Amino acid sequence: MTENLFHVKDKVVLITGGYGILGADMAQYLAKQGCKVVVLGRNEEKGNELVAKIKATGGEAMFLVCDVLNKEMLEQNREDIIKAYGRIDVLINAAGGNMPGAAIAPDKTIFDLEIDAFRKVVDLNLFGTVIPTMVFAKAMVDGGAGNIINIASESALRPLTRVAGYGAAKAAVTNFTKYMAGELALKFGENFRVNALAPGFFITTQNKDLLLNPDGSYTDRSKTILAHTPYRRFGKADELLGSLHYLVADASKFVSGTVLVVDGGFDAFSI
User: Fold this and answer.
1) Do the strands 146-151 and 90-93 form a parallel or antiparallel pair, or are they unpaired?
2) Residue 22 has pLDDT above 90, yes or no
């Protein structure tokens, strides 16, 4: 038996979209635990800024410019990571997002949905998970072991108003998570696992305008969300980290195909 099931030191962890509010917290936390963190994203300035912050506190990290929809670029990222660290232990698919045209406001209907925007949201969230998984899982298979953690959403579990495109894409990510758990284990052995982390409601850069008024007070949507959340508050970014650590560590070695929900009880609550 491993002396410490939650030991993660020296694991090579990739995080796509790793400089977002939630992704940056994940990257900094894992680096503090001794992981070698690779941040992947399109914004070089933000990525390098995060890596500098990690290194300033004694952590090990590198940033690579990446487009999660560009397989060739991802393959080059893979080669660069293998050259630097020799292997890939964990992939966290955190790249994602939403856009107004793929949402349906209260004064709109399904007939106002912008299909091009819907398609872009599905591309980013679903294909932005599938393509990196294909590319980096290849390195994991070559190395004999691997751990993939997808970032799902509360909207993947229950259909929420407004976020039509985002909810559909994240529901597909959840299904793909379960599919890949079987695909990798059945064909490549028990050293491969795939799970998802499903955050509830956290205030981020992307949803801030939807949840907060200009004066910082809660919008009507926020009030509705909190009325359906037994904790009666939004999550804090660091409240995802314990669950993430569990999925990264060998403590979850026999856990695959699951969706770990972190939502203050939202999904469990009705009336």
Assistant:
1) parallel
2) no
The answer to whether 141 touches 188, Cβ cutoff 8 Å, is yes
Question: Residue 48 has which token pair?
Answer: 């390098």
CA–CA dist 78, 178 (Å, integer): 24
Mean pLDDT over each residue of the chain, to the nearest integer:
95
Query: Tens digit of pLDDT for each residue in 107-143?
Result: 999 999 999 999 999 999 999 999 999 999 999 999 9
Q: Angle at CA 229, nearest 5°, toward 225 and 234?
A: 70
Angle formed by the axes of helices 128-143 and 164-188, nearest 10°: 20
Question: Hey, what domains does the chain have and what are their CATH numbers?
Answer: 12-200+237-253 (3.40.50.720), 207-234 (no CATH)
The string of pLDDT tens digits covering residues 170-219 is 999 999 999 999 999 999 999 999 999 999 999 887 788 889 999 999 99
How far, in Å, CA of 261 to CA of 266, rounded? 9
Contact at 8 Å (CB) between 90 and 98? no
Q: Residue 125's pLDDT is what?
A: 97
Could you give the CA distance from residue 125 to residue 130 in angstroms, rounded to a whole number?
9
Whole-angstrom distance, CA of residue 55 vs CA of residue 46: 14
Catalytic residue IDs: 166
3-class secondary-structure state, position 161? coil
